[in-house]
Design goal:
- It is a multi-pass membrane protein.
- It catalyses: ATP + protein L-histidine = ADP + protein N-phospho-L-histidine.
- This is histidine kinase.
- One of its GO terms (biological process) is cellular response to phosphate starvation.
- It contains ten helices and seven strands.
- The chain is α+β, with helices and mostly antiparallel strands.
- The protein folds into three domains: 78 residues; 66 residues; 142 residues, Heat Shock Protein 90 (2-Layer Sandwich), CATH 3.30.565.
- A five-stranded mixed sheet has the order 2-4-5-7-6, with helices on one face. It has a two-stranded antiparallel sheet with strand order 1-3.
- A hairpin with a 3-residue loop joins strand 6 and strand 7.
- The longest helix is centred in the middle third of the chain and has 54 residues.
- It is rod-shaped.
Length: 312
């Protein structure tokens, strides 16, 4: 403790010895009586010793408080300006750490919920494929449909992890949205054929965006349009300074629309039909926000839903 104190206040001791040396030099040069020098040094040393003892007492208590942990009752000891600045910095770092831990805990909870849901969803197409294999009824169209569902669930999980870890590799370029929608319609052709849903694509829209992530967001919207469409229905895709995907499906309750993009929210019709995961539109919204695009939903029950994506 004494060694730490000497190191802390070494400037004080150095200044004292320099002053004492200066007095000694002056007394020597002017041939002053040494009695005065001795008396001056004794007086100065006594005052200096009292000050150092006082500083050492305070230093000892501050170090003890810091080693044992700072409590509310001990804050009066740390009353120097530098102590207050240090305590304020510690409190700020503590708050930041607490916020980071809460955010990390929430991400972990969200990830656990998603993995549980994802594993549950994966069982359905896997069970269907297993049943077709056991019964020797491997219909190519049905197999393609189940494989596409598995691919979509895997993409959702991987992209959720990328977005959560902020490791998204956005690369902006001129994108022809019509080509993206044509590719998506080809990708989901088995679903369209299975439910005998007609599809139309009209217009054009070109913007500067990330092709891969925009395609992923639009695929979630198109997948929902197919999922909730009735057999023999129609999905219309209109491109004009934005993209509108309109279906003739079961629709969405008005009170559910404001919460469509909340994580895990399925809505009344989603729960009734047991098809919704609550992550598709949530992920689409997160991606579109980072692409600086806006998404709006209008719907009427039993008449259909229209989803519009355009620049903000």
């Amino acid at each position: 403790m004494i060694r730490m104190f000497l190191r802390e206040y070494r400037t004080f001791f150095l200044a004292y010895f320099l002053l004492a040396g200066s007095f000694l030099l002056l007394f020597y040069l002017y041939q002053l009586p040494w009695t005065f020098f001795v008396q001056s040094i004794l007086l100065a040393s006594t005052i200096f010793l009292i000050i150092m003892l006082s500083l050492f007492w305070k230093f000892f208590h501050r170090m003890k408080v810091l080693k044992d942990g700072i409590h509310e009752a001990d804050l009066y000891i740390l009353n120097r300006p530098i102590d207050r600045v240090y305590l304020a910095l510690l409190e700020k770092e503590k708050d930041e750490t607490r916020q980071q831990l809460l955010a990390y805990k929430k991400r972990e909870e969200d990830l656990q919920a998603l993995v549980k849901l994802w594993s549950h969803q994966m069982k359905v197409p896997l069970a269907a494929l297993s049943l077709m294999s056991q019964t020797k009824q491997l219909d190519p169209q049905s197999v393609d449909s189940q494989l596409l569902r598995l691919d979509n669930y895997q993409a959702n999980l991987l992209n959720y992890l990328k977005l959560s870890n902020q490791s998204s590799d956005f690369r902006f370029e001129e994108v022809d949205v019509r080509l993206i929608m044509v590719d998506l319609v080809k990708k989901y052709r088995t679903h369209f054929l299975h439910k005998q849903i007609a599809v139309s694509i009209d217009g054009d829209w070109t913007l500067k965006s990330d092709r891969k992530w925009l395609a992923f967001a639009l695929s979630q919207i198109l997948d929902n349009a197919i999922k909730y469409s009735s057999e023999g229905g129609l999905v219309q895709i209109l491109l004009d300074q934005g993209v509108t995907i309109r279906d003739q499906g079961i629709g969405i309750l008005a009170e559910d629309i404001p919460r469509l993009f909340d994580q895990g929210f399925t809505g009344f019709n989603g729960r009734e039909h047991q098809k919704a995961s609550g992550f598709g539109l949530y992920l689409a919204k997160r991606v579109l926000d980072q692409l600086e695009l806006d998404i709006q939903v209008t719907s009427q029950v039993d008449q259909g839903t229209a989803v519009v994506v355009r620049k903000k």
